[in-house]
Amino acid sequence: xxxxxxxxxxxxxxxxxxxxxxxxxxxxxxxxxxxxxxxxxxxxxxxxxxxxxxxxxxxxxxxxxxxxxxxxxxxxxxxxxxxxxxxxxxxxxxxxxxxxxxxxxxxxxxxxxxxxxxxxxxxxxxxxxxxxxxxxxxxxxxxxxxxxxxxxxxxxxxxxxxxxxxxxxxxxxxxxxxxxxxxxxxxxxxxxxxxxxxxxxxxxxxxxxxxxxxxxxxxxxxxxxxxxxxxxxxxxxxxxxxxxxxxxxxxxxxxxxxxxxxxxxxxxxxxxxxxxxxxxxxxxxxxxxxxxxxxxxxxxxxxxxxxxxxxxxxxxxxxxxxxxxxxxxxxxxxxxxxxxxxxxxxxxxxxxxxxxxxxxxxxxxxxxxxxxxxxxxxxxxxxxxxxxxxxxxxxxxxxxxxxxxxxxxxxxxxxxxxxxxxxxxxxxxxxxxxxxxxxxxxxxxxxxxxxxxxxxxxxxxxxxxxxxxxxxxxxxxxxxxxxxxxxxxxxxxxxxxxxxxxxxxxxxxxxxxxxxxxxxxxxxxxxxxxxxxxxxxxxxxxxxxxxxxxxxxxxxxxxxxxxxxxxxxxxxxxxxxxxxxxxxxxxxxxxxxxxxxxxxxxxxxxxxxxxxxxxxxxxxxxxxxxxx
Length: 628
Known about the structure:
By secondary structure, the protein is an alpha+beta fold. It has helices spanning 47-51, 56-63, 71-85, 92-118, 125-131, 133-140, 147-150, 155-161, 168-188, 209-244, 268-272, 278-284, 315-320, 408-418, 463-494, 568-574, 590-597; strands spanning 5-9, 19-25, 32-41, 197-198, 201-202, 259-261, 303-306, 309-312, 322-325, 391-395, 401-402, 424-425, 428-433, 451-455, 510-519, 522-531, 534-541, 609-612, 617-621. A three-stranded antiparallel β-sheet has the order 1-2-3, covered by helices on one side. A three-stranded antiparallel β-sheet has the order 6-7-8. The chain has a three-stranded antiparallel β-sheet with strand order 9-10-11. The radius of gyration is 23 Å and the shape is globular. The two termini are 40 Å apart.
């Protein structure tokens, strides 16, 4: 074997924030040697530190400043934690407005950008011609199956449309993501830091409600047609790469599905009836999985899948099982030097099932309600600590522990296998996108007629299944928007003079809150402990946190790799082969980058200072703004 090749890509571009990759590769096979692939976050967040001592509602608007890309994602998870902790949930109209805004400002906006502007250039004609000429030649000769919808004759035409700055899909994505943000801002007031989100509801001014709904519908009509184009183009491109370029298993994370999903686009009626105190709201959360008596149903479901086994469909189990470690991260362990804020959840379940680690430490100390963020900056060492990202893990009642994945593929796979969602029929994703009679002049005529998007999520999370999952997730957002718009308009028209959206929140002496919400790149999770109407502790995991998790020894089960739990990013690189048709000394690592970018990484949620210079001293403070 030739001498191993060390590939280092730092920073990885076209992601939000600072992310690096190093991998040891066999130049003869293009494959990673002995699992030696490491991804690392080079920035620290620390928002949890200065949230303590503030009033709970402040958290909604502070955490949204974690990032200028997914600020609304954090705001929505935080507002749900506040709903619970402060004992107030919106009226149905208020929850419908939340759903309407979020479907636009994050899902449609974000997915358009990641698919066609950030991930798309890796499959563009410019890249394919230079690094994958045989695949490019086949693309020129392959007719596109869905050309009647997206308007491209060949696969090569789709690749050309993904060329940065000049490509048609690239350019239109810039335009249509603006339209999506406009639709959401009608309700939020601003994006990506929505000021209208408040505990117990939303502060949207409905004195001009008819105009608001009309303007939203106008934009939703355009975006429905646009979504058809995007999904059709990526279905054709993905199928081509699988059938002609040996790309079916590239970027595989785990041999069998291993992921979590949580709730998203909750039923306005069911969410509005969860309760008026934190114990009842928490206890009743899993009722959201039931069919609503009226109005839109909840779209996404709480789910835990471990090594191909469906363990639970319970939000409560998902919360009790959640741990977070820092063995390979630049933090001090807090478990032996702090006291727990709570040993149980709001209904008396012992966190982490009452289990202990090998040192006799109660694992509930590693639950986010009990975590304390204590930074410990140092030079990276891949045999010790090497990332600012912490290590989310799940622990089950039998003592098994594992790393896991989250994202659009995961949540769509979850609802497909449970078959309890309005977007599922006969075990597959089935979403009808309606006819658009007044088609935007810059979109192909095929985007006008109704089209039923059908997709059976594969059991393997790969580069292309994650990309296709993101595209189909756009259809779920469009479905949600139409469903909630019809419902919200009906409710509003019944009481235009004084529409009810929000309930007043309480000021408890003690309470707990948790908000876990499905967002573009995964599941955003926020935990809050309230004492005397003050935040005693606050912890949150960005949607990317579990996916970019560094490896550690907190693993127990047959899925462990040499005794280690390895995060999804690193697994996707380990299971990717470099297929560039150039000599190894000219490899760029596009296949690795495709695998990582397919997750839509957002690292700024994890960072706001960096270590620079040979001596690794703290030299520069980065203000909390998005650095995408």
